[in-house]
Write a structure and sequence with these properties.
Number of helices: 12
Number of domains: 2
Mean pLDDT: 95
Helix content: 40-55%
């Protein structure tokens, strides 16, 4: 099987590493970072943290890919998904499967512009990894991946989950992956956005007096809109999960903080808090807390001149 990783930062390279290392599949990393591509092709992909290793693996720009894909794992930032799919259209066949593991919601609408719904597999992952330097990743924790084919092609969806599990990625086929996606979006919509606005760790925000009310109102909006979308969400259950997750990650600066505060990059807020605002409009459900959080993040991007 020929597997492309479309977007080979920390997480994309982690998934590519595991598949290349532990299965018979060929993996090609796609990215636009020249130094990253060059270092990988010259020295191999260097892995540290939970694993210490260096492997030979191909890396190139998306437009340079010319072999037809069996599987494409899309790992770009959400706002770059459409342009990435445009760049790799020529390697996608009618039987190519797409696996989307991006943060946030609504990516399936973009993917449906390029492939049939039965080629789309949505997933959610809780793997943790960082990019130390061009060609060098650090795997900081062992995680899981849940996968579901949203077009009814359960056979191919299960084949993808089996491949990822054999690769050591802790994958399983999930009959209700949208629940897992909504739950993760709620985690990101409370932790990522708020720590980016307040410029603090997860623990520092959740220890503040105002945090419980803010988080509670955000989760109420997510839960109400999710139910209207047909997702079985329980407010108390979601709150307990978020508070537990916050305690476990109390010393962590989430990816949105790292993008906006550390790297001065634009965020994925429109696919997280902004997504629930847009979905709320479709159901005539007001989402004032998520709306102001989205607006404040965009204002901060503008003030900082984020790219």
């Amino acid at each position: 099987m020929l597997v492309y990783i479309a977007g080979s930062g920390a997480m994309g390279s982690t998934i590519g590493y595991h598949i290349q290392k532990n299965t018979d599949s060929e993996v090609i990393l796609l990215d636009y970072w020249d130094d990253h591509i060059r270092k990988i092709n010259e020295n191999g992909l260097k892995v540290s943290g939970k694993v210490e290793d260096t492997i030979k693996i191909k890396a190139m720009k998306p437009e340079e890919a010319d072999k037809k894909a069996d599987l494409v794992v899309v790992m770009t930032k959400s706002m770059a998904l459409e342009s990435m799919m445009e760049s790799i259209e020529d390697i996608i066949r009618e039987d190519t499967q797409i696996l989307c593991l991006l943060n946030g919601m609504g990516h399936e609408r973009i993917l449906e512009k390029f492939v049939d719904k039965n080629q789309i597999n949505m997933g959610v992952t809780i793997w943790a990894a960082g990019l130390n330097a061009p060609g060098e990743i650090e795997i900081t924790g062992k995680g899981t991946i849940d996968v579901q084919n949203i077009g009814g092609d359960e056979e191919n969806g299960k084949k993808i989950a089996d491949l990822l599990d054999k690769a050591g990625l802790g994958a399983k086929y999930d009959e209700d992956v949208m629940f897992a996606i909504w739950r993760k979006v709620m985690v990101n919509g409370t932790m990522n956005s708020m720590t980016s606005l307040m410029e603090c760790t997860i623990g520092e925000f959740f220890e503040s007096e105002e945090s419980k009310e803010i988080v509670g109102e955000l989760v109420k909006e997510f839960t109400e809109v999710g139910r209207a979308e047909g997702i079985k969400l329980d407010y108390e259950e979601m709150m307990a999960y978020i508070l537990k997750s916050a305690e476990e990650a109390k010393d962590h600066y989430p990816s949105m903080y790292q993008d906006l505060i550390k790297r001065n990059r634009k965020t994925e807020i429109d696919f997280i808090n902004g997504a629930v605002v847009e979905k709320g409009k479709n159901h005539n459900i007001a989402t004032p807390y998520n709306k102001i959080v989205t607006q404040l993040i965009h204002a901060k991007e503008d003030i900082r001149g984020a790219k």
